[in-house]
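Quick entry, no commentary yet.
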Amino acid sequence: MKRSFTPRSNATQPSVWILLSGCGLHDGTEPHEAALLALALARHGITPRYCAPDMSSSHTVDHHRGELARHDARDVLSESARLARGVVEPLSTVDPTKVDVLLIPGGYGAVKVLCDYARRARACVVHPEVETLVRALHARGVPVGALCVSTVLIARVLGSQGVQLGLGWDSAIDADCASWGAQVQRCEADRVVVDRAHRVVSTPALSASRDLAVVAQAIDRTVAAVLELR
């Protein structure tokens, strides 16, 4: 029998935030993952709020040619608004005590804007506002969902506490995350890894498969898992 579904009213919606890093696979948030996150949340009757660092990024890639677009600095907040279809709040203004769930899509902005892993690898530093938010949420037991390469910044912030993360598709990234103390688990493209102790859910998403139908399944499972952890 087909199950009926009644969306939650706005009054009972949890405060779910999506952390963006611009717009575009090679220098910002991966658009497909951001859209699939919003769709998965919509299936639960939830409208997310969006945030991003209020900063400029000089590392802009011409996605048509696959080349670095020199002298083309972009505003991360404004670029993120392309994906959010409107309002994106500066990360510095987000009150961690008012966040029920945080979701971080992938795209290279996660390792170029939210942290500098793409440049410094194992010696990377997480953007201070990102690290402050993740640590504050972890301290409160707020669930975090990480997609694709955004798992790297979670490993950097929470690795020393032994956080479990779904990776396994790039040996160098696996080794770096393990060096910080993260417990790396190989995760198939349509699956998720749920670390109940640290309340982190992760999936490799488009780093493991180009099949959007498969990735959508994993993102649906990620959203369901983080909501169940509340």
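second:
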Amino acid sequence: MAVDLIAPSILSADFAKLGQEVDSVLAAGADIVHFDVMDNHYVPNLTIGPLVCEALRKHGVTAPIDVHLMVKPVDRIIPDFAAAGATYITFHPEASEHVDRTLQLIRGEGCKAGLVFNPATPLSYLDYVLEKVDMILLMSVNPGFGGQSFIPSALDKLREVREIIDDSGLDIRLEVDGGVKVDNIAEIKAAGADTFVSGSGIFGKGKDTDPNRYDSIIAQMRAALGRVGR
């Protein structure tokens, strides 16, 4: 049974003190640092690149770094993130000319590979590459911006992917990203997720007013997750 992992998305962090923000959420019990990499091409926003990943590693962050590439094309940037210290690299199949090759490239660079599915992207991309996938990330919002509301139909898709993973017998993490908060994380786990990305749901709460806000939020998330069996 996979251990539940909480992955704060630094897209919602205070970039003026990013190292401190990441240190704080990890000290509060988060497991993974999630990067939302946007190129103002595949999605209508521009965010961060490999230099930020490298800077956090040099800062002393040793936790896994989960890089979600919302860029097109993807292959050029993968070696740079691998060299910068990424642990997971996930990408959207629509952004790759050759999905199998891109998955092999990520693993060849020493990282774990994953596919990302937008709300309207079919799961059929998994049919011939499942054995090359270490993580499946389901978007529960349309990619491009933080702070969006969870799309309820993602729960049905989560159940479908959970069945695919369980039937395969493979060790694949099932991650969800978009609108994940304390009040819905239990329902999301019950649908099959084991890795939970939350940006504004963690970094946006009590900003600049509560110095211990991360401890409280992550503790509430853990408690909600603990009430759900699998």
